[in-house]
């Protein structure tokens, strides 16, 4: 019998309590939605950094495969159609590598991406040249008019003679 008395005294939630609970829940959901937007923006920023890093390493590998035309990599890229059965010189291949590298890099980064390749020739008796590659781009900021400048710079030693 006590059980019935216990249920009688418990009348449930009032309308005001339900509204307060709903208000607290909706504030929490707004916080979660805001956090989702921030995490998407950070995710895109890390994708741009990864693209820049992979493309720079790709150009370094092209340089290592074609070290005799190392200074050509510091110039502008020129389409040379050095694929398939076409035979190209080392200089033409380097210019073609730079052309395709810049094209692929700009496809993965925002439109205003810029690049700079600096080659410092090897000083005898060493056969190692120093190459620095800078990639700069602007990401969308918190507002529609603001942008944030980002860059990726790395340096590598490229063997230009045997032995290095």
Give an overview of the whole structure.
The termini are far apart. The protein is elongated, with a radius of gyration of 29 Å. It has a three-stranded antiparallel beta sheet with strand order 1-2-3, covered by helices on one side. It has 164 residues and is α+β, with helices and mostly antiparallel strands. It has helices at residues 2-9, 15-65, 90-108, and strands spanning 114-120, 128-140, 147-159. It has one domain (14-159).
Q: How many distinct helices? A: 3
Structural class: alpha+beta
Mean pLDDT: 85
Compute the separation of the termini in Å: 96 Å
Strand numbers in spatial order across the main sheet: 1-2-3
Reported for the largest beta sheet, the result is: 3 strands, antiparallel
User: What percent of residues are in strands?
Assistant: 15-25%
The stretches of 5 or more residues where confidence is low (pLDDT under 50) are none
Tally of individual domains: 1
Number of strands: 3
Q: Kindly state the percentage of residues in helix.
A: 40-55%
Shape: elongated
Radius of gyration: 29 Å
**What series of H and E elements makes up the topology?**
HHHEEE
Blueprint of the fold:
Layout (H helix, E strand, L loop, with lengths): L1 H8 L5 H51 L24 H19 L5 E7 L7 E13 L6 E13 L5
Antiparallel strand pairs: 1-2, 2-3
Helix pairs in contact: 2-3
